[in-house]
Every structure is written in structure tokens, then in C-alpha cells.
Amino acid sequence: MARKRVAVLISGRGSNMRALIKAARTKNYPASIALVISNEPAAEGLALARKAGIPALAIDHRRYGKDREAFERAMQAELERHAIDLVCLAGFMRLLTPWFVGRWHGRLLNIHPALLPSFKGLDTHARALAAGVKIHGATVHFVVPEMDSGPIIAQAAVPVYETDTAETLAARVLKLEHRIYPLALKLVALGRVRVVDGRCVIAGSRPPKGALMVPQQS
């Protein structure tokens, strides 16, 4: 089976992008990172991608003013030019329009630093601490027009300690993100994920090792 060509969209340092690149270099991984796009020309992750030999470019959203769809059409043109199969958001700090999301339905993934559906949006770690939750974590999900609301592909959790700050909790969750994003992408690239009644079902006998919490399996 041909490896799926993946584009990673970033806005900053590209921490999860690096985890995906590392995974894609392992033997028999079903996807390759074929393109990196950032809406921020100064994003640190662009240089890291180029150093890894991956085409990386900036499309500054500011050039398009308030026309979000025009910005996304510029991205779409590059995705088509590079024959991309799947798109992974990795710290991409732009809300996507229904126009773009619709074109990538079932092929657009995101990593969120919380156990969805709890704590959608920003400042998840501080909000988790303020709410007094006992566990926190990360979620990989398909993107839908509603923010952080798509079908969940995989999740992993960590305990929340009384001594935690938002920074210490974020550091532990980030380690989870680096584990489950490559695993979720692998499942999708292998065609093992299907959405039934708004929920992801994982085909096969067992999920990849390291996915601590995943949707039901068929």
C-alpha cells in the first residue's frame, strides 16, 4: 500500500510536527510528511522542517485581511500541488472555515491538549486546574466546522497533582501528545478508522501500543 502524503499545518515551534516527522521515518509507517505550511512566516517549525528535508512554506494570513476563505484557498492550492492525502493541524492557531473543512472531511486531524469534550478552546491546562479535575490529557480528533467537536480518534490521560501548575501539567500533557498523534495518524493512514453515528470506530483486533484510551473497536 502506498504511503499517504501528509501536510502539517503549524503556527509556531512545531513540537507535534517533529513527533510526526520522527514517526514517519520509522520502518513500515504508512504515511510520509510531504509538506509543512505555516500562517506565520517566522514560525520556528518551518526551519526545522526544511532541515529535515521537507518542503516548508509560509502563507501569511495577514495578506488576506478578513477574507479567511481566500487565505484557505491559497493553502488549498499548495495542498493540491503537493498531492496531499491527509492534513494534520499541529498548533495551527487559525479557525478554519466550513469551506476548507468540507474539502478535507474525514482527512483533517487535530491534536487538542485536553480530554474532549471537556475544555474546548484555549488555556486548557489552567482551566482544568481551576475546575479541580483529577485527570487531564490530550485528544486527537477529526476536524469539523464546530471548534474541537469532531469525532475522537484517540485520547490519553495523566493524573492531576495538587502541586501542579499550568506549566507542569502542560509539560506532561505534551509528552502524551507526542505519543498519540503519530498513533492516530497511523490508524487513519491505514484506513482503520471509520465514523459511525458521529463516533470513531477502530477496525482490527487491537489499537497500536501506546494509545491509552481509544474509541470502541469493531
Describe the structure.
The chain has 218 residues and is α/β, with parallel strands linked by helices. The protein is built from six helices and nine strands. It has a seven-stranded mixed beta sheet with strand order 3-2-1-4-5-6-7, covered by helices on one side. A two-stranded antiparallel sheet has the order 8-9. Strand 2 (31-38), helix 2 and strand 3 (56-58) form a beta-alpha-beta unit. Mean pLDDT is 94; it is low at 210-218.
Q: Features of this protein?
A:
seven-stranded mixed β-sheet, alpha/beta, disordered C terminus, 9 strands
Summary, kept brief:
This protein is α/β, with parallel strands linked by helices and 218 residues long. The chain has 6 helices and 9 strands.
Question: Strands, helices and their partners?
Answer:
Elements: E1 4-10, H1 15-24, E2 31-38, H2 44-51, E3 56-58, H3 68-81, E4 86-89, H4 98-103, E5 108-112, H5 124-131, E6 135-142, E7 152-159, H6 166-189, E8 193-196, E9 199-202
Parallel strand pairs: 1-2, 1-4, 2-3, 4-5
Antiparallel strand pairs: 5-6, 6-7, 8-9
What Rg, in angstroms, do the CA atoms define? 17 Å
Oligomer: single chain
Order of strands across the main sheet: 3-2-1-4-5-6-7
| Morphology | globular
- Uncertain spans: 210-218
Structural class designation: alpha/beta
N-to-C SSE series?
EHEHEHEHEHEEHEE
Q: How many DSSP-defined strands?
A: 9
Strand content: 15-25%
Largest sheet: number of strands, sense, barrel closure? 7 strands, mixed
Alpha plus pi helix count: 6
